[in-house]
Design brief:
8-stranded antiparallel beta sheet; 6-stranded mixed beta sheet; 9 helices; 26 strands; 22% helix; globular
Length: 390
């Protein structure tokens, strides 16, 4: 189903299609129905959990013949209706405003730094710069690879001067398998880099809604390669964390983790290091890099709605609203909003601000991999154009 033609709030520089059918062929047909392949530079496909990926890739290729299709499985989608969990979302970037080149890094784990640097430098040199156009990069990484921290740092270094935004692919909350779509196939243990050039102006966004408290935690025993923390403050990690937030170990759930994050300080800014599970041996499994000796603080939440509305109130230098915002939004944020009964309000804010994207297992921005964060790119009309809604 496509956006209503009479809707004055729909984006002008991308075409959006979506379907909630569980049949991959029908979903592809419905979502692609409003997309004209002759007008598309490339399409992002953001895929719900549980769909037959081989059939979906085949069907998308049939309906969007000749158009490069990239994307990933997700932990939820942000559609024209706001938050959804069962929608196939297609975002077609128009030829008149976008150019792109892609690289697939496979296998992602173990991560080989030298070949990645060589590939990126070669692709960057072979992707000629259009005068007056702006350049950015988008990264989609296997959310179970545990390689996003290193990958984000490498890409930030090699793509010096080109901002990189991205998110980790998900699969609902099963943590059973995440996949990247490239060249008509879904790939496990992989990452996708899209080098994008556009005549639109853009602005990067990165924010959460937590402040550090005085409660300090020190990781005293960890397995960094597995993102497992065995001890905090010299005690079993789950037990000590539960004590500090004032609950029992058996009450530790994804919702509790989402509402009581741990923060690390980097360059005088605090970033979330999210827990997503408690193991049988009372260890805690994290979604971002951890290490022995790392000092963290418990986070305290700010007003969610107030923070979201303030951060999405972005404008171009000429004072214009974004045409659309491409979003990488942590699934733990969505869990917290649902737990507090705020997901409907958040969806309303997303719709009003033309936010499109997906829920991630982690977010990448400025060379960092983080959690429980909204990372996005707001795209604005070039100064020579005047959008009908401004």
């Amino acid at each position: 189903m496509k956006d209503a033609d009479h809707d004055p709030g729909r984006p002008q520089r991308v075409t959006v299609g979506q379907s909630v059918s569980r049949d991959p062929r029908q979903a592809a047909a419905e979502a692609a129905a409003g997309i004209d392949p002759s007008e598309a530079c490339f399409v992002l496909a953001l895929v719900p959990h549980g769909m037959d990926l081989d059939l979906l890739a085949e069907a998308l290729g049939h309906h969007l013949d000749g158009v490069p299709i990239f994307g990933c499985t997700t932990a939820g989608q942000i559609t024209t209706r706001g938050y959804q969990t069962d929608a196939l979302l297609l975002i077609a970037f128009r030829k008149e405003n976008f150019r792109c080149a892609s690289i697939l890094f496979e296998p992602l784990k173990p991560l080989a730094i030298a070949p990645i640097i060589t590939q990126v430098k070669r692709q960057n040199a072979q992707f000629p710069h259009t005068p007056g156009w702006n350049r950015l990069a988008l990264v989609f990484a296997d959310g179970l690879s545990m390689q996003e921290d290193l990958l984000a740092a490498v890409l930030e270094t090699v793509l010096e001067g080109i901002p990189v935004f991205g998110g980790s692919a998900g699969d609902g909350l099963t943590f059973s398998g995440t996949y990247i779509l490239h060249n008509g196939r879904f790939h496990a243990n992989a990452a996708l880099l899209l080098m994008v050039e556009t005549d639109l102006q853009f602005q990067g966004l990165s924010f959460d809604h937590f402040m550090p408290t005085e409660t300090q935690l020190v990781i005293t025993d960890a397995s960094p390669e597995e993102r497992l923390v065995h001890e905090i403050n010299g005690a079993p990690a789950a037990r000590e964390y539960a004590r500090l937030i004032g609950c029992s170990v058996r009450d530790l759930t994804p919702q509790v983790f989402a509402e009581n994050p741990m923060l690390v300080c980097h360059n005088e800014n605090h970033y979330v290091r999210a827990v997503f599970a408690r193991t049988d041996d009372q260890s805690l499994s994290f979604l971002a890099a951890i290490d022995d000796g790392l000092v963290m603080r418990l986070g305290r939440g700010k007003d969610v709605i107030e923070a979201l509305e303030a951060e999405l109130e972005v404008r171009s230098p000429a004072g214009r609203c974004p045409d659309f915002i491409l979003a990488f939004d942590c699934v733990l944020r969505k869990l917290e909003f649902e737990e507090k009964g705020l997901d409907g309000k958040v969806s309303d804010i997303f719709r009003r601000n033309r936010v499109l994207g997906f829920n991630t297992y982690g977010e990448q921005h400025c060379g960092l991999h983080m959690n429980q964060t909204f990372v996005g790119v707001a795209f604005f009309e070039p100064e020579r154009r005047h959008a009908p809604w401004t």
